[in-house]
Request: fold
Amino acid sequence: MLTEHPRTTDFGVIYRLFDAIEGGDMDAMRRCFAPGALTWHNHDNVEMDLDSVVGLIGHLCSVSTSRAYTDRRVATVDAQAFVQHTLTAALRSGRQLQMPTIMRIEVNSDGLVARLEEYLDSRAFDCLAEEVPA
Reply:
């Protein structure tokens, strides 16, 4: 007879990750990821290591004055979280980035992000083409 043991995963890392990005704190963001964690995006089908992800988000922070994850909806299954939200950023040019996104996030036994898969419409990035970092 198979016995299912309840599996408890602390998903607080997801909220810490969003808070770090909203605050532009790349060190806090980095601490949310496990060593060797990978991030994948549907629009380019490329896996990125943590340094690449920090560079990408750091660029977003440098061309924006604020960022917010709104309309957050989180559903969890075992050690996975499915997060739907809209990333909104006030850009230095006065324009606004609005990017509806869904993520599948694997959280390891240490409560850190082991893998993040992000599904988004890459056309949302078009408004960033003319932005200059501060």
